[in-house]
Structures
1.
Amino acid sequence: MPTFYVTTPIYYVNDRPHIGHCYTTLLADVVARFRRLDGDDVLMLTGTDEHAEKVIHRAREASVSVQEWADRNAQAFRDAFAFMELSQDDFVRTSEDRHKSRASAYIQKLVDSGDIYLGDYVGWYDPGQEEYVTESVAKAHDYKSPVSGKPLEKRTEQNYFFRLSAFEDRLNEHIDAHPRFVQPEARKNEVLGRLRQGLQDVPVSRAVKDDVGEDWGIRMPNDPGHRVYVWIEALCNYLTVVDTTERRHYWPASMHLLAKDILWFHAVVWPAMLMALDEPLPGCVYAHAYFVAEGRKMSKSMGNFIEIDQLRAYGERYSVDAVRWYLATQGPLGATDADFAHANFIDVYNAELANGLGNCASRVVNMIHKYFDGKVPDARDATVHGDVDWPSMTGGHVQKTRDCFGLVDLHGAGHQGLAIVTAIDGYINNTEPFRLAKKLTGPDDPQHADLALILYNCAEALRIAAVLLLPFLPQKAQAVLDMLGASTSGNGELEAHAQWRGEHGLKAGTPVVKGEGLFMRADTEEAAPGA
Ligand code: MSP
């Protein structure tokens, strides 16, 4: 069975979860669910990054121990992901021993091989980001943080360095040889552009300072006066979690998902560390763009972050699956930012879910109730009817769903199931089963078989659409399958379940259940929930 290992960034526990964290983890979830359905042995990993200095500061402000603060916020992330129905197989916390012990061992290995060495560092430090910026970046921003605008600090430190410069050629070669290693294309070009300016060695430790004072983080092996720089150990999480006998086969990761803010660490620093550790490199590093809120960049100072509570309010009013659908299909998956705007949410919700999938399902089920006593009609097997070649139309969308997932195109993938729904609606409008039903003189009327065929085709196509939509809408797509009395499609069963009138096709006589309305139409005038 092929393995598929997908990761998300591990999130800082200085803050509570917001739409950005939920978005990346949702992408990983949708991909993971699809791969499981399509037969891969999947491992999906998310978690929290806990050793940053800002976590210590936030804990102090709140007058609690760092551990308590980290526990509290790690739990907030777990709760947020549970609410979003995210199906991670593991949730790593960098304060766990399994992470700390293995990350230390990797650092030791790099010290032993000479890829990490002790030297002096003078540079411009951005305290908010906990990273150094290059002289040219510092100058371009008037020696202020490019992110927060706060003054940069000139720092001189004795540090351990990672010999990043030694991997420049190999990194360039790897990116050339694997065109899909860094995605999307625009981001890859950025990385290549920066690589052309040459690579400098990077500091990987920080002297343990009095002001931090806590025993928090990972010390340099054999030099406890230095703490391992948080980024360096955090990146190791992707490997520490699978560095066990049971899980080693998942490595290398198939896909690291993240946003553009942390691309450099994932596309350059981490692969170089892996080269130094003699480990194979991940299949791809995909860096999406940002969600903005109502057209404006989200920021602390603006106070306009879409927090988890607001997403919960959307979930309560429109369903969790509606939130998943909007984020996954309208999100900033490519190189351009996407807007979370209430009006747009409502438009998409009404058009695609309420008037789309929901309305189609209730139309089909209601007609089966009305004309066939609530049982799947016994229909002849006619592949082409009403100008639609049903097996090839549905089969085409199954294949395109796979192709879209291969291209990390979640909008495209989600719209394959929806395209089947649109085809069913068009077929109903063309063949007008409700009109046909009125004309029938009784079950012996020769046209009765046509009515059975039309409604069977609608229901069978709806079943396949629901199977394709399962990764996006785990509850609602399952509800559609339940309404149709279809068998549940489990891991590895996509092929069999998406087959037209195959082994899992709808069987004549199976009871069809009306079910509650899947998605209530939304009032376009209604104010945003939880705003
Ligand atoms: N702890 C580091 C990551 C270490 S990974 C080895 C970190 N944490 S973070 O909490 O700041 O999370 C950053 C990530 O959150 C982004 O890369 C992205 O996945 C997600 N997002 C944060 N804001 C976002 C948006 N506005 N829009 C979409 N996703 C964003 O960096």
2.
Amino acid sequence: MNVYDGERIGELLGARGLTAAGEGEDADLVVLNTCHIREKAAEKVYSDIGRLNRKDGSSPMIAVAGCVAQAEGEEISRRAPSVDIVVGPQAYHRLPDLIARAARGEAAVDTDMPAISKFDHLPRRPTQPRPTAFLSVQEGCDKFCTYCVVPYTRGAEISRPWGDIIDEAKALVDGGAREITLLGQNVNAWTSVDDSGRKQGLDGLIRALDALTGLERIRYTTSHPNDMTQGLIDAHADVAALMPYLHLPVQSGSSRMLKAMNRSHSRESYLEIIARVRQARPDIAISGDFIVGFPGESDADFEDTLSIVRETGYAAAFSFKYSPRPGTPAAEMDDQIPAEVMNERLQRLQALLAEQSQAFNAASVGKTCAIMLERTGRKPGQLIGKSPWLQSVHIDGAGHAIGDLVEVELVSAGPNSLAGVKTRKVAA
Ligand code: SAH
Ligand code: SF4
């Protein structure tokens, strides 16, 4: 979502006549779009700010945007005086005004969560040269997992209106997008009413987008297990454009830990959802997020995490050491886990997850599938695209261009990508 927000900030400033500085060029304004999810991400901001200071002690105009801005507010400019602007993730449409204020030497801090959404103030999506696009449909979170800052930094759960999303999708497709990834902190909690006043969930939206000519692929992320409706599961069975990939974080395999995390699902209910998803779409690739070392996590709890990984079988995953976040209930809990224990657990978990993703890739060899070419590869003439299961696949790109959907046979698997051989061109 930060990538999406960054693009929209760029478009907003572009519409006001600013142009992007080239790599390594001295910029007049630098916008740091920040993440507060774990301490490491949040601390990185301050080293980035430090690097922007010039030798003579001056600096470009610096705007800190995103969730660190929301969480720390004006404290940021106290700690880093070269920061001129602080703007939260729901207020960045006001950046032009904040820049004008900062240029006048006035304070420019805006961490409001205005009732009228920023989306109503942003310019229409421009033509974009890439075939894949992100589209935020839902923001914020009401789930309040005890470790997580998102409900505080992104605010309450909101769903963008049906018509706005369809319009933005059309603009993206008109501009050249052939694949759209719908984004939300809880994307599958998205709900709105369609043009005829009927209540719709994410599955209804996906079905409407499927009808757009020129849109070949639809993905969505991130989903919460509790909002995994049967309608959405069914969409995986019968919407051809909906790719067979589901990112469904579980965090822990121990129901006791899940309760302490306030996840409101259990190990069993998660596994039951995975079984229904696989019934609907047997070849679906499942990915997940994991936290090790949540306060009070015992060896047995951690073993439960390893065993849910074995039972589920992940194609890909993100795993993290628990990071205590200011203002969250878990940060105040007893039984914080020592760093060495967390490190050891993370290593064991990551080794198992790496083994699984390699096994998933190896099992794909011999399959024929379409890949959407997205970028050039490292070797001359090589083009890289994504398989339906979100694997990177490189092919000899002769006769093809970025944006082509090409049918390939997957012929070999490396640790991070697969090699494909063209069978025939599916669509140009
Ligand atoms: N809404 C999504 C994920 C949002 S945050 C969900 O509920 O699944 C992305 C991931 O960061 C989470 O899934 C979690 O694994 C991780 N995360 C969030 N807070 C964390 C913390 N305090 N320490 C470590 N990892 C954390
Ligand atoms: Fe954070 Fe996701 Fe839990 Fe919401 S559901 S509080 S975003 S981890």
